[in-house]
Amino acid sequence: MRLIAVALISVLPLGCSDSTEPERVEVSGHVTLGGKPLPRAMIRFVAIKSEPGLHDSVTMISEGHFAFDSTNGPSPGEHHVMITPMEPEMNEAVAAIQNGERDPLNARSIPARYQSTGQLRATIDAANVQPLTFELTKR
Questions:
Q1: Beta-carbon-side half-sphere exposure of residue 112 (alpha carbons within 13 Å)
Q2: Per UniProt, which keywords does this protein have (predicted)?
Q3: Which of 55-64, 79-88, 93-102 has the lowest mean pLDDT?
Q4: Quick one: CA torsion of 107, 110, 112, 117, rounded to 10 degrees?
């Protein structure tokens, strides 16, 4: 009998868990800079109205495309969106310099106004998810 009681006590917490994780939404979209797909960067969604347990959503932009799934996507609501450059791999930087291209380690390809809160916003609607498009300008 004591063994059954111990077994029930150890199983009960599994069925009564209090899920305090905020809802997250699968979101995808495109980012352009000067009309061309942004080759490589990070995109970050920061909820304007923060909730306990809610964390920023961050993912990589590759060839102008980004995607979040329902485990790491932004929560429904209004968000500040920040787009920041990624440091190039050293071998990519060396190859670019050897090819006479601009030094990618010193290049500021994304204007500073897009790298902080305020310039870009997005509304995430869990009931009507649409691809997002961010068209950045160089000036």
A1: 0
A2: Lipoprotein
A3: 93-102
A4: -150
Question: What residue ranges define each of the domains in the chain, with the CATH number in brackets?
Answer: 21-136 (2.60.40)
CB–CB of 105/62 below 8 Å? no
Q: How far apart are the two ends of the chain, measured CA to CA in Å?
A: 75
The whole-angstrom separation of Cα 44 and Cα 29 is: 13
How would DSSP label each residue in 99-119?
TT---TTT---S-GGGSSTTS
Place of tokens 């352009």: 32
Asked if residue 83 lies in contact with residue 111, where contact means CB atoms within 8 angstroms, the answer is no
Please say whether the beta carbons of 34 and 67 come within 8 A.
Answer: no
- pLDDT tens digits for 100-123? 887 666 556 789 899 988 899 999
Tell me the sheet residues that pair with 84.
42
